[in-house]
Cell division control protein 24 OB domain-containing protein (Piromyces finnis), 605 residues
Amino acid sequence: MDFLICIQKTYDILNDINKTRKNKSRSNKISWNWIASHLIKLFNQYPAGITYAIVFSELEMEIDNYTQIKNDNGKKFESIQNIYERSEVSFNSIFNVTLKEIKTIPQTNINVFSLQEIDSNCTIDMIVHQKFFNVIEKFKNTLFRRPLNVKFTRTQVIKGMNPKLLPTEYIIITLNYKEHIGFISECLDKMSIDDILNNKVLNQEISIIVKIKEIKETKTYKPDKDTKMEQKEIIISDTKSQNTMSLFLYDEQISFVRLLKNGDYIAIYNPQIDYDKENKKILNYCLDTIFIKIEKEEKQNIKHLKLSSQSELCNIPEDDNGILDFSQFQERLYLCDLRNNTKNVSIFCQIIYIGNNNPIIVDNAIKNRIGIKIQDNTGIRDITLWDNLALQMLKYKVGYYIFIENLITSDYIDNTFYINGIEEFNCKIYNVNCLKSIISSPSFRQINYLSELKSKNEDNVFCYCNAVIIGWKKRLDDDLYYFAHSNCEKALSRHNGIDFCDQCASPINNEDIVSLYAIDWVIDDGTSVLTVSADSSISTEIIGVSINIFKNQNQDVKENILNDIIGNEFIFGICTLPRNEYRIDCICQPEFEEYDIKNYIKKFS
Ligand SMILES: [Zn+2]
């Protein structure tokens, strides 16, 4: 599998570079999973092809960002000294200072934070944003009694003899867990995500302590036709249970992200509980909301495990709930390594069976659910995919190599444990067979001969071959196209008098019916001739005419269009199927100077 070779080569080189730059901040090995998932992301960004030079420069940059985020030293803080020198600051500057005391301007109710640079005596005053008035009043004899570390952004300078800072609401107070344990347990650690999800927080002041699990990419959000907002979703996980929730920030509020990072523990004080479109509870930042960062050593029990694929004992951290966390695991994990009660398990494998959608009702909501069988060279396993991941699987085919990130496994139930792919646990599935970038990149793919592919005599072998189309065949007896369910591209079947798709477990409306090409192609590379099937999108790429235009032509024109394609050369990603059948999973134009098969064949015919 060419992709595996790419990962291995990248892994070896990146980790070798590490060895030779030991003096640099990066000392940890870059994990196999990290490379696999970042390579796939890169491949998706470069569908027309990529070189190792680009891969390494992009990954090096990512690694630097990643290690900086991990060490929290990537953030450059603005200094108070600079304000006195320049009298201005960028709106995007981040300050990391000590809040020494809170003063009140005489004869007003305006509060002022007296801020001091860490490691120097330089101080400046900031007018306090009114959102803090309530908490200052409430906690003046507890939290604000001592100096506190605060980080903030989006402030401006009032110039003058004694410059001051304008109020900003984008302030995060940082508390050391041990030093402030009394205040934290009494005032901040009041409930859990569980309580919020189960409606146990009526008429109470809401304050939860959570861990930031994932800060997602900013999206455009349209609450209605005329409004457009930037939206940031932050996945937060409970510190008392496995539950997660989404916290949303909009437009300017997104500035908070500069002060936060994955893995931070934060207290969210006074968030607004709301519902998303799917009626799921979410949290919003609102005028009264305050974030307090809690610096806490994560309780880390390390388990020493013997994994079948590894020669040495592995140290796997266990989270607060006794779940083994594989997120930092260095090497490739295999199916034989899987065990109960784990999370963040990432596997590279091949699909060998895809079940039908088998939805179940949980909490009055229908949850899509699909079982698949996957294999690698250590075994075969069943996985259950939920919700959108199940729907994503409907378009996948047996034989696809996939990389699945962040699976979780259950505890033992009747002598067995279950493997689940759940979006909320950050599970993602990537299809590797159809990655355009690999087939388009000479340095990442190896070209095989059709004769080699034929001689493999095995199902689910995937190879790239450079060949010429020498003919086409109707896959169905009567026509060159068929009617299918748009979701899964399966041919329609009649069920109880209505159109029903067994695979998707859903009725089919008229607008869900699409026409798709049903053409097999005969290809030749000079070593052998194969008949290969292709799904409609591949055939569209070969023919260059969309099915909706094609199907309205008369029979002669249709045949002419197809006959015109004979002689065209492509590189095909081909998967072997049972009964000596073959399927094209991806395709690209060849680089003519390198592989001129057409001339080669002509010479011999
Ligand atoms: Zn369907």
